[in-house]
Write a structure and sequence with these properties.
233 residues; 8-stranded antiparallel beta sheet; 3 helices; 10 strands
Length: 233
């Protein structure tokens, strides 16, 4: 069994400045998620904030807590084409102050769909029917990271017809990586399945980049993944 991608705590960013440099310089190309993807506008969030799910099940951006050094969300999209609606992808890399804090964040994420099976993403978009799964210690889990979560459901904008919604979250030492994908209209079940698989592969590329940076002892410079361990599994 292959070892998972990870980032040793003693090689991770230790200050807010180092963490901001780490998340900004981490290479995440649009084509990691499939052919035809491009960056969205606005592309990046403020690394001094992160998304928090309130008691009212509404997502809001808030200042980082003391246990988080930096968190950066980037937006990508597969434009509408040939009668198929756009696919929207968000990718968030968060640097926690230590592994314990990152584990607590993963545990909180696992509980969120139980607390809020329906969630308001923004003023127009709502997700429902959420189901989460943790594969952290299963014998047959995909070898990608130290811990991983997956979540699926449906999303709808302004009350329109619902489409598939995917969510993934991995932990590599004190760093967590999360991605969401809102599928567009006009796709068959097989095409939606391809979108889901491609997003999962993209997450593997990101995990490989973080692992590579840690092994190189350079958590302040970009790194291209050299392999795709677990891709497509």
């Amino acid at each position: 069994m292959n070892k998972p991608y990870t980032l040793a705590e003693d090689r991770a960013p230790r200050t807010r400045a180092e963490a901001v440099a780490f998340v900004r310089e981490l290479t995440v190309r649009p084509d990691y998620f499939g052919t035809g993807y491009r960056t969205r506008d606005p592309f990046e969030s403020d690394p001094a904030e992160w998304a928090v799910l309130g008691e009212d099940c509404l997502w809001r951006r808030e200042a980082l807590p003391g246990t988080v050094l930096a968190s950066l969300t980037r937006g990508y999209e597969l434009p509408a084409k040939g009668g198929k609606g756009p696919v929207y992808v968000s990718l968030t890399v968060t640097v926690h102050q230590d592994v314990v804090s990152a584990r607590r964040d993963m545990a909180g994420s696992l509980e969120e769909p139980l607390r809020c099976p329906e969630q308001q993403l923004n003023a127009t978009d709502r997700v429902s029917g959420l189901y989460s799964r943790v594969d952290a210690f299963a014998d047959g889990r995909t070898v990608i990271s130290d811990d991983d979560l997956t979540e699926s459901g449906n999303w709808a904008a302004d009350g329109a017809k619902a489409h598939p919604f995917d969510w993934y979250k991995f932990r590599m030492g004190p760093v967590t990586v999360a991605a969401t994908a809102r599928h567009g209209s006009g796709r068959t079940e097989a095409e939606d399945s391809t979108v889901t698989t491609d997003i999962a592969k993209g997450m593997t590329f990101v995990a490989a980049s973080i692992d590579s940076k840690g092994k190189a002892g350079d958590t302040g410079a970009g790194a291209e993944p050299t392999e795709t361990k677990g891709a497509g599994q």
